[in-house]
Amino acid sequence: xxxxxxxxxxSAAAIAKGMGIxxxxxxQPTITEDYPxxxxxxxxxxxxxxxxxxxxxxxEKCVACFLCAAACPAECIYIEAAENTDKLRISGGERYAxxxxxxYSRCIFCGYCVEACPTDAITHGHGFEIAAYNTSTLxxxxxxxxxxxxxxxxxxxxxxxxxxxx
Length: 166
Ligand code: SF4
Ligand code: SF4
Prior knowledge:
The protein is of the alpha+beta class. It has two domains: 1-31; 50-145, 2-Layer Sandwich (Alpha-Beta Plaits). It is 23% helix and 14% strand. The chain is built from four helices and five strands, in the order H-E-H-E-E-H-E-E-H. It has a three-stranded antiparallel beta sheet with strand order 2-3-5. One iron/sulfur cluster (SF4) is lined by residues 62-68, 79, 97, 116-117, 119, 121-122.
């Protein structure tokens, strides 16, 4: 009988202790994110969707060296290189990436491409809303990754396409 009473008292004490912690936490500030009703906050080191950076003059930093593609364990980076010319200069190097795709159905966000890049052209942003029902939409193109031309920068020499028949 005495052991039964001890058992009941032990259980009651455990419940009281647990409820005490619950009530104490109820009075503390909320530390969980209120997403999607509130902004999602990230640590600076968070590896989100990639960004292709520009230099201070607005030129693309990528010089199409293919080192990121070589370092990628998922083989999800596709690049086509083209030569800069006097009339068409896109990057500060000899070449630029005329095509730069990342297939996010394969990317594991390991960051090896970022580490391999000698010009800091490819970086991780904080974009994370990239889920899709159709994996073919997960191939992200250069135009979607390129950051805006910095304010006040001299825009790179991008020729205006000539309309057919002119
Ligand atoms: S983060 Fe990793 S898997 Fe994704 S593109 Fe870069 S190297 Fe490849
Ligand atoms: S992103 Fe960097 S590593 Fe990749 S091709 Fe461009 S310059 Fe080379």
